[in-house]
Amino acid sequence: MRLFLLPKEFNGTDTITLTGKNFNYIVKVLRLKENASLTGRDAAGNAWNLTILHIGKASVTLSAVRDAFAKERTDALPENRPRHNIILYQCLPKGRKMDEIVKRGTEIGVCAIVPVKSGNCIANLEENRAESRSERYEALIKEAVEQSGSLVPTRIGNLIDIKDVSSDFKKRSEAFGEPAIGLILHQCSLKEDQRDLVSVLKGFKGTVGVLVGPEGGFTDSECSLLMQEGFKPVLLRTNILRCETAAIYALSAVQALIETSEDN
Amino acid sequence: MRLFLLPKEFNGTDTITLTGKNFNYIVKVLRLKENASLTGRDAAGNAWNLTILHIGKASVTLSAVRDAFAKERTDALPENRPRHNIILYQCLPKGRKMDEIVKRGTEIGVCAIVPVKSGNCIANLEENRAESRSERYEALIKEAVEQSGSLVPTRIGNLIDIKDVSSDFKKRSEAFGEPAIGLILHQCSLKEDQRDLVSVLKGFKGTVGVLVGPEGGFTDSECSLLMQEGFKPVLLRTNILRCETAAIYALSAVQALIETSEDN
């Protein structure tokens, strides 16, 4: 199923005319013809039934009718959607690895992805790249939502320093009004007790913040700081994973654990 | 850390001369020079300390000394390796999605990946492609082991029909001498009780078989058959995932659940 993300400007009018990338996507990529229908979602997460009225040379006009889609979906598979919030704090890895993480995280239904700068980051973090980076992530999220039909409106955060992760998580998680727990994925042995995911999340239902390191992991002082601020260090009992795999692994396991119907 | 997979012919001699792809990998890709060292693993899973003695035009000769590497690793992170076996039965998806699954599955430390042909498979399964497919998977596994330093020797199985999954799993899992459970990932509502992963794996420690469908999922009769044969249907409480993400999601969550130190 494909889902089309309506532009932010869309304010519920009966028809909408799209140009540029959106025109391209509908006419060139999806190759839809006049009278074809597709499901849209607006910035607030509402579902719309869209029908193509007219295709011009560089613009496409659609009718928009509020759709019971989301409701139907919810009725059909009442428990088959993530009910709790996951926020991914990802220290920027090298090259295009972050793209992969943004795509899969969106697909899994993470509610926010916040890029983090930490001591061992070797990615190019120049300020003048911030805007293009952020634009690329937005585009990747849009594509992943459209491909997967995710009903979670995944947001991308601005790049923050690792010392601000804890306050950022506090602010974001408080908005959800659920219990919240922050996890730091640290594959080195600490002096302190370091538990596995199942053990740390036993009986927990609520918002989870997952902090994943860059290729070189975290420094001892970064770990100590986060732990002082209440983050729980987690050791994954697995092979040595590449950092993009580690993020997906953690998000998958965390979601499976907090979405269970068991009291575990 | 990089790990070099020694050719199957290697039988523990003091020196080994490599040509072709192996020569290329060491000299052209890793760009190692004479006297450089790297860690190797033989077909039986033993670790070897390799040192480059001589680089020729099309061959490289190395000395090979049995290494305490695996032991050291185990001592350093005694519990930080998968202890239980996971076997992935993956219905062949379209195009190159299987490549991604093979790579990540190897990284996570799945012990076997078995391609499966099922009713909704739309991949090209022509017999004459079987050999090149199998060769490609072997190469991907080799690359993923070398990149991730996985200590699990992941095997690729021959393509089997979905009706033979149950007997194949019985045979493979019996060899491990642990309790075994087969799971079928089915994202449609069944009449029967369909539980989530945490619930199905509660208290379970042993070998897990994970059967993941192709793009179109399983047919009702495939599901019924597998369930009659003891496979448990599992519903992931997540978004609609692409099939390659579904496989990684399930493997990650399953491994996190069976590797916990909790009794859960």
Quaternary structure: homodimer
What are the secondary-structure elements of chain A, in order, as H or E?
Answer: EEHEEEHEHEHEEHEHEHEH
- Overall pLDDT confidence of chain A: 86
| Relative helix content of chain A | 25-40%
- So, CATH architecture of the largest domain in chain A? 3-Layer(aba) Sandwich
Put simply, the count of helices of chain A is: 8
CATH class of the largest domain in chain A: Alpha Beta
Number of strands of chain A: 12
CATH topology of the largest domain in chain A: Alpha/beta knot
The outline of chain A comes out as elongated
Instruction: Tell me which protein chains meet in the greatest interface and how many residues each side has.
Output: A-B, 48 and 48 residues
* Count of folded domains of chain A: 2
Structural category of chain A is alpha/beta
Strand content of chain A: 15-25%
N-C termini distance of chain A: 33 Å
The CATH superfamily of the largest domain in chain A is known as SPOUT methyltransferase, trefoil knot domain
* Rg for CA atoms of chain A: 20 Å
From the structure above, extract its key features.
homodimer, 264 residues, alpha/beta, Ribosomal Protein L25, Chain P, Alpha/beta knot, 7-stranded parallel sheet, 5-stranded mixed sheet, 12 strands
